[in-house]
Write a structure and sequence with these properties.
The chain crosses the membrane at residues 12-32. Keywords: Membrane, Transmembrane, Transmembrane helix. This protein is mostly helical. The protein has one domain (1-33). Helices cover 88% and strands 0% of the residues. It contains one helix and no strands. The N and C termini lie far apart (61 Å).
Length: 42
């Protein structure tokens, strides 16, 4: 089975975009939780 390079490039781009979105969501979630903990301590 020969996979076109264009398809492979598209799949890699989608994986990269999903990974970036996941990291941004995780970062925002951690930041919000950190802020909530700060408010609780105060």
């Amino acid at each position: 089975m020969d996979v076109p390079f264009k398809n492979y490039e598209l799949i890699m781009a989608m994986i990269l975009i999903i990974a970036v979105i996941f990291m941004v969501v995780a970062f925002v979630k951690i930041t919000i939780e950190h802020e909530e903990h700060k408010d609780d301590n105060a």
